[in-house]
Backbone:
């Protein structure tokens, strides 16, 4: 597994955005409505700046594909913010400019054993896209993949954005159990299941890497903003790497 430092967002910017209610104790800063790497990096930079500002009453800051949710305690009578006052503070912060997020700079290699027992949907994806299985693998490994967010389960990444040929809907019938490490696609995105979970994405392969481990200083292997390189490996290499991972954990 390799880490290389790079970034799509190199300079201070002041992006356009809108603000809206998300219930009584949360608001959303919306930076667009299209999933793009540039927009994702803006969301990460905004979330980092908001966290560092330590605004009174703010309890959590959650970036996603195109927006940042800001959770807060709303009690104006005690000095805590309401929607209006927090909106004004956030607007001033963002308009002052955003620097690149410090953690949105890594490229992470993810070894993947495609097809066979690890990738039961590879042949179906090939048929649906009109590609050969090898072409599916080559396109899935193409440069440009980025972790936009973590969600659904601890360490569960949402990675995009792939070629339009991979704009496949989720499976009609989800699986009740998907093995940990499974690498799957849907709607021009990839995900890697960190543990045994239900799921309806198309499984292309699996990685022997452990996505979530509470014994590590940083439990999640991937972070929002990471750039991903999927690296094809053989079943033999998969078994060797899996054995090495087990020894490290022991």
Residues:
């Amino acid at each position: 597994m390799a880490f290389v430092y790079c970034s799509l967002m190199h300079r201070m910017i002041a992006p356009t955005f809108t603000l809206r209610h998300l219930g009584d104790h949360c608001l959303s800063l919306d930076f667009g409505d299209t999933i793009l790497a540039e927009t994702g990096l803006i969301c990460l930079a905004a979330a980092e700046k908001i966290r560092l500002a330590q605004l009174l009453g703010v309890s959590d800051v959650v970036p996603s594909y195109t927006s940042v949710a800001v959770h807060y305690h709303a009690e104006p009578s005690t000095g805590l913010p309401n929607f209006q006052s927090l909106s004004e503070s956030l607007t001033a912060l963002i308009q002052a400019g955003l620097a690149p997020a410090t953690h949105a700079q890594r490229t992470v290699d993810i070894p993947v054993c495609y097809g066979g027992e690890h990738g039961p949907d590879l042949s179906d994806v090939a048929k649906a896209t009109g590609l050969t299985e090898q072409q599916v693998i080559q396109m899935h490994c193409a440069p440009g993949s980025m972790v936009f967010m973590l969600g659904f389960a601890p360490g569960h990444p949402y990675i995009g954005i792939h070629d339009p040929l991979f704009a496949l809907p989720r499976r009609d019938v989800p699986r009740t159990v998907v093995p940990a490490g499974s690498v799957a696609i849907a709607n021009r995105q990839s995900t890697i299941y960190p543990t045994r979970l239900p799921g309806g994405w198309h499984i292309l392969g699996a990685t022997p890497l452990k996505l979530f481990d509470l014994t590590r200083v940083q439990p999640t292997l991937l972070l929002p903003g990471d750039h991903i390189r999927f690296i094809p490996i053989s079943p033999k290499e998969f078994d060797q790497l899996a054995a090495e991972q087990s020894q490290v954990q022991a």
